[in-house]
Amino acid sequence: xxxxxxxxxxxxxxxxxxxxxxxxxxxxxxxxxxxxxxxxxxxxxxxxxxxxxxxxxxxxxxxxxxxxxxxxxxxxxxxxxxxxxxxxxxxxxxxxxxxxxxxxxxxxxxxxxxxxxxxxxxxxxxxxxxxxxxxxxxxxxxxxxxxxxxxxxxxxxxxxxxxxxxxxxxxxxxxxxxxxxxxxxxxxxxxxxxxxxxxxxx
Length: 202
Fold this sequence. Notes:
By secondary structure, the chain is mainly α. Helix content is 72%, strand content 0%.
């Protein structure tokens, strides 16, 4: 099956609609956090929800479009972090199938694990392309670690390991809350429903 056939078969109207909402959520949450200078991101919430309900490929598309739009409208650096969003989408889809969204504590654990992976992927991008400064709320952590005598790469990595697991833990918990409150008849319209059904209550 080629890409065009896959998209025609799997990107159904409900999936496409949710992807659109996911992009809007990513942009809205990301920009709100950036304006408030909170040392988090929360710009992958829509991607995680799409991954849980629709699968990895729709989530990757949602993440890529989100970062491209964020780069065009808010901050040009966002396009360089597309690989991070892809990793988040892939892991969120895998963890959904492993039952990480059946319990709130599993959702947080999954988010922490994704956060660690995201930090490892984003650190070299931030360090070598932007000198560790991306005009995000987490920049002060980079400056703090630099002030303690850490090399640039170490400072950026420590910043990521300090903020990303918290950020993704919160993101996955928010996704769990959204998924647990969605009506059953709405959940059943998406292919990921059977991975979320058993005990989806906080």
